[in-house]
Amino acid sequence: MIFDSPKSLATALIVLATLLPTTNADEQADNERHFTLKVLPTLSEKCFGCHGEPGKELKGEFTLTSREDLLKGGESFDDVLIPGNAEFSFMMETVRWDDPDYEMPPKENDRLSQQQIADVEKWINDGAPWPNDDRIREIRLAEREIEINEEGMLFKSSGGLADEWTYRRYKPEDMWAFIPIEKTAVPDVRTKSDNPIDAFVGAKLKNAGFKPAPGADANTLIRRATFDLTGLPPTPEEVSQFQKAYKRNADKAWATLVDGLLDSPRYGERWGQHWLDVARYADTGGMSNDYERSNAWRYRDYVIRAFNEDKPYNEFIVEQVAGDELASASVADRLKDDPKTIANVHNDGNYTKQEIEWMVA
Fold first, then answer.
1. CA dist., res. 11 & res. 118, Å (int)
2. What gap in Å lies between CA 331 and CA 352, rounded to an integer?
3. The predicted structure's pLDDT at residue 59
4. 3-state secondary structure labels for all residues of the chain
5. CA distances from 124 to 84, 106, 117 (A)
6. Which among 257, 181, 272, 195 has a CA at the least distance from the CA of 226?
7. What letter does residue 157 receive in the DSSP assignment?
8. Residue 37 DSSP symbol
């Protein structure tokens, strides 16, 4: 074998050295796991599209869908991967964007993160192991049995369009709404209220070195509550009545005020708007073709009624996802599945009030 340069000789020696067994079984398993869970997904997402995805043009006569292809190199370089030595591997120059002529991936918004670059570097320095398909599948299946690891937590669902979504990991703090509630010890902090929530607030204030704000007077309380629950200011008469009742019995006056505001039709109008914002509700189409959506108000009023009637959240969601199915099932049930009479209902619109409500949702 003839080496045309010192660099070629050095490269060959490094490759030869990495072929010798230097890791024990545990280290090898960890290295294979690191590749399968960290490096391979990065290569698949960032590199395979131009360098190995079936049916697409191969860029630079270079494919990297296997360790052998990486060792072979491309049309310009044969030192793309030097197992055991990331410093000599041209692959690292490309992903770091050290060479302005070979920045990979070439688009700024596709660049590897610092963590991804570190993962690739570790993989190369560990000898660039690339287990076979059966071993990769074994590692992935084993990982799916671990509910929480350093990457985050798995969330059981009906499944995504691909395994990458079905077994995606999330930060536990981002999934708080789906984690079962656990009873937490109430902090031993003296507050003016018996409500445990105030004990938690008091503990935070104490740790931060703050003192609780003084209690609000009757006038402030009614303004805060009325604006918060209805979006409107209290009338002078309401303020006067509350102040008198508050002097007689503060707790009773406050409870009566809040109950009355929750019973007000204005409550649903105020708080329904938050859900309507989530649903991207609008009376018109917006943009340049700002056409009127003539019946959109029916859904708006349904949401307001749901809040005012204190509809359970699960029912609220099911009705909006499958309201038409609920209505159809109801029609079929009350008409004993008779096709002719069912067709007449659909044609004539002879639905019950509840069926109409489901369809509007």
1. 22
2. 9
3. 72
4. CCCCCHHHHHHHHHHHHHCCCCCCHHHHHHHHHHHHHHHHHHHHHHCCCCCCCCCCCCHHHCCCCCHHHHHHCCCCCCCCCCCCCCCCCHHHHHHHCCCCCCCCCCCHHHCCCHHHHHHHHHHHHCCCCCCCHHHHHHHHHHHCCCCEECCEEECCCCCCCCHHHHCCEECHHHHHHHCCCCCCCCCCCCCCCCCHHHHHHHHHHHHHCCCCCCCCCHHHHHHHHHHHHHCCCCCHHHHHHHHHHHHHCHHHHHHHHHHHHHHCHHHHHHHHHHHHHHCCCCCECCCCCCCECCCHHHHHHHHHHHHHCCCCHHHHHHHHHHHHHHHHHHHHHHCCCCHHHHHHHHHHCCCCHHHHHHHHC
5. 5, 21, 11
6. 257
7. -
8. I
CB under 8 Å to 18, separation ≥6 — which residues? 82, 83, 84, 85, 127, 128
- pLDDT value of position 21: 46
pLDDT at residue number 3: 43
Contact 219, 239 (CB under 8 A): yes
Question: Rounded to whole angstroms, how far apart are CA atoms 359 and 351?
Answer: 10
- Segments in the chain below pLDDT 70: 1-23, 49, 52-58, 60-61
Asked if residue 308 lies in contact with residue 267, where contact means CB atoms within 8 angstroms, the answer is yes
Residue 2: per-residue pLDDT: 44
State the SS3 of 194-231.
Answer: CCHHHHHHHHHHHHHCCCCCCCCCHHHHHHHHHHHHHC
Type of residue found at 156: K
User: How far apart (Å, rounded) are the C-alpha atoms in residues 207 and 237?
Assistant: 42
